[in-house]
């Protein structure tokens, strides 16, 4: 997949630039269709971006936020992406669709979440791990080969099972924006930019892809 690549001096400048990209995409989507669908990953950088996004012109009332992935952990757990998302956006209150990781039947929950996704996602935010994972598509996990579902669960990874959008779901994105910061990401980012499918991130396909990275990662 072809990527547009933009580099930034540091993570703060990156977060501000990413917020501007998201806000502009949101305004354009709402002008065209009346709604903006945005799927968000966890990690360090997005919370800086959301903090900047609060001072941007975003049509929050027409915004629906989906989760790209989530840890199987109790509601309110500090490790949950939802916990950080609710905290970051408490003052603007968009509609957030949480992944049902606490369902008794987590497989059925994943299937239900997949059915709730729109046919097209206006924007999907992805991060990149030092091991080349993105979303919770992690190296060596059977989830990498799931092609018949939009949402699936992983085996335990870094202490938790995860629920994640699959490659099939990510392919619904009109635009993917990758936020990558830190020198520990450099090797993985080099592989992503080269389209190296030996890392999970290298297998993502979508209509358009923008990589936004700080100098340390490039």
Write a brief caption for the model.
The chain is an alpha/beta fold and 218 residues long.
**Global mean pLDDT:** 96
CATH architecture: 3-Layer(aba) Sandwich
Could you say what the CATH topology is called?
A: Rossmann fold
Percent range for β-strand residues: 15-25%
Q: What does this protein structure show overall?
A:
- By secondary structure, the chain is of the alpha/beta class.
- Helices cover 29% and strands 20% of the residues.
- The strands form two sheets. Strands 1-10-9-6-2-3-5 form a seven-stranded parallel sheet, covered by helices on one side. The chain has a three-stranded antiparallel sheet with strand order 4-8-7.
- Strand 7 and strand 8 form a beta hairpin.
- The longest helix is centred in the N-terminal third of the chain and has 23 residues.
- The mean pLDDT is 96.
Record the SSE blueprint:
Layout: E1 4-8, H1 11-33, E2 36-40, H2 45-53, E3 63-67, E4 69-71, H3 81-88, E5 95-97, H4 106-116, E6 123-126, E7 151-153, E8 162-165, H5 167-170, E9 176-180, H6 186-193, E10 209-214
Parallel strand pairs: 1-10, 2-3, 2-6, 3-5, 6-9, 9-10
Antiparallel strand pairs: 4-8, 7-8
Helix pairs in contact: 1-2
Key attributes of the depicted protein:
Rossmann fold, 20% strand, 218 residues, seven-stranded parallel sheet, alpha/beta, 10 strands, single chain, three-stranded antiparallel sheet
